[in-house]
User: Which sequence fits this backbone?
């Protein structure tokens, strides 16, 4: 029983990775919108873009981690 | 769940990443690898690449300077060439003028000579003409005298030479 | 689930997608001590070999006009050098060899892991945790050595209203200590997830041998999916190495210039 509940929890935690994908997409979309408005400044901000994506993704990875732990370690 | 898996296969865990028995092995070999990579990079690769890049930068800078110098030389050569061209033009004009002057002088001399010759010839001719004319006048006088004498004789007069000559001279003057 | 998959292995077609991450001794079958040469050793050694080929053998001519192999080394050098200079500042250039070591190890391990039947060392949390902890400890120690207690200003946001500052300090402190966790799990998670997904599709690919009807649909689709995932993984391999390195530079900047 406990194992099944853990699997359900893992599935729910997996939703978090999808939501993080929304965040990453949001970052990229806004970067693109800004870059098209001012293309000359875009090249200097790609590093910032990747940092932003990395931070947004980090939280998704936490839920991925929770899912993994629920699946294999609990 | 995980415990079930452990019971099923002793050697494998459901997620090999979470098997702590392999951690020391991985960490040990990772540290060895990192140290090796660090020494390879910092002792050999990075200084070499940095040297190559610096050398290339230097070469490019030198080449640009050399190109600049060559460009300057070309510009100098062009001005020198233009200068030489202008000089040559001036020289040519001078030579042409000199030649012209010389020719003119020769020409003038020849013309003068010719003029003199012509003058001399003309004077000679005039003299000859005058002589001829003189001769002719004398002849005319003679003819007139003799004719007048004959005419006077024919009319029965007797004319002395003096009167006839005076009359003819007066007549010829006219 | 894992045991079920193993039970079906008898048919020779189904395999567990996580099996590729198992650490095995290279010789024999014995227990894994810390010194045992394992497939981890093999693939890390290959990483070293590839790095030496790229950066040492490739540049051995020291040509002013670079050959193709020398260009690769110079590109990698210029890429990381510029990143360190731009993100962490000019005075971080003295840490460039360390950051270059990290980047080269991660990027080459990631790409080697994409070879069929390869073992991906960077998909293991033990490996990435050591990398991330090394960065974290270096940055923390360096921050305190260079700036003393001023380094704590990193957590005390002086631009915020006074009442908010303690709250922000707790958040900042928390996010500071979460850094190595996210730093390591991001890399390992990406590598593991991508490889596992490829393996899952690979498990579906021989379906046509079991049942022609379903196989006609599933097999081409899964082969297509493997190809697409492989392309995505190539991108991810590079981007994750890039992200790991650039975050290292960001953390390093915090240690060198902790003013917020």
Assistant:
């Amino acid at each position: 029983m406990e194992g099944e509940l853990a699997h359900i929890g893992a599935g729910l935690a997996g939703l978090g990775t999808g939501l993080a994908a929304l965040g990453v997409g949001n970052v990229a979309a806004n970067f693109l919108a800004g870059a098209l408005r001012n293309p000359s400044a875009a090249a200097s901000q790609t590093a910032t873009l990747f940092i932003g994506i990395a931070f947004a993704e980090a939280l998704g990875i936490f839920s991925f981690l929770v899912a993994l732990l629920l699946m294999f370690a609990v | 769940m995980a415990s079930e898996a452990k019971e099923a296969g002793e050697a494998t865990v459901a997620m090999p990443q979470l098997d702590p028995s392999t951690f020391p092995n991985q960490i040990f070999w990772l540290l060895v690898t990192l140290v090796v990579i660090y020494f390879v990079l910092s002792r050999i690769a990075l200084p070499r690449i940095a040297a190559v890049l610096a050398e290339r930068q230097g070469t490019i800078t030198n080449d640009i300077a050399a190109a600049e110098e060559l460009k300057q030389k070309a510009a100098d050569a062009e001005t020198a060439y233009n200068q030489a061209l202008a000089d040559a033009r001036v020289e040519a004009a001078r030579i042409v003028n000199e030649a012209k002057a010389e020719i003119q002088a020769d020409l003038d001399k020849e013309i003068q000579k010719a003029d003199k010759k012509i003058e001399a010839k003309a004077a000679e001719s005039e003299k000859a003409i005058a002589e001829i004319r003189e001769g002719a006048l004398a002849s005319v006088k003679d003819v007139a005298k003799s004719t007048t004498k004959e005419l006077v004789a024919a009319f029965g007069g007797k004319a002395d030479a003096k009167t006839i000559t005076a009359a003819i001279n007066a007549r010829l003057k006219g | 689930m894992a045991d079920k998959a193993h039970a079906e292995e008898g048919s020779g077609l189904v395999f567990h997608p996580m099996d590729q991450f198992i650490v095995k001794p290279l010789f024999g079958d014995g227990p894994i001590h810390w010194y045992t040469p394992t497939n981890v050793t093999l693939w890390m050694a290959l990483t070293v070999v590839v790095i030496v080929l790229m950066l040492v053998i490739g540049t051995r001519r020291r040509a002013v006009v670079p050959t193709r192999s020398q260009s690769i080394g110079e590109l990698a050098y210029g890429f990381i050098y510029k990143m360190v200079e731009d993100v962490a500042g000019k005075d971080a250039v003295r840490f460039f060899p360390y950051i270059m070591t990290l980047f080269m190890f991660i990027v080459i391990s990631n790409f080697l892991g994409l070879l069929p039947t390869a073992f991906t060392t960077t998909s293991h949390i033990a490996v990435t945790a050591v990398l991330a902890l090394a960065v974290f400890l270096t940055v923390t120690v360096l921050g305190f050595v260079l700036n003393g207690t001023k380094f704590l200003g990193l957590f005390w946001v002086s631009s915020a209203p006074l009442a908010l500052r303690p709250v922000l300090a707790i958040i900042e402190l928390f996010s500071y200590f979460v850094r190595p966790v996210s730093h390591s799990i991001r890399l390992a998670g990406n590598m593991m997830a991508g490889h596992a997904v490829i393996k899952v599709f690979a498990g579906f690919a021989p379906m046509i041998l079991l049942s022609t009807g379903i196989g006609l649909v599933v097999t081409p689709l899964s082969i297509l999916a493997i190809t697409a995932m492989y392309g995505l993984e190539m991108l991810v391999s590079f981007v994750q190495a890039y992200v790991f390195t650039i975050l290292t530079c960001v953390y390093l900047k915090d240690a060198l210039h902790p003013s917020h």
In short: The helical segments of chain A are 2-37, 39-42, 46-73. Chain A touches chain B through eight residues (CB under 8 Å).
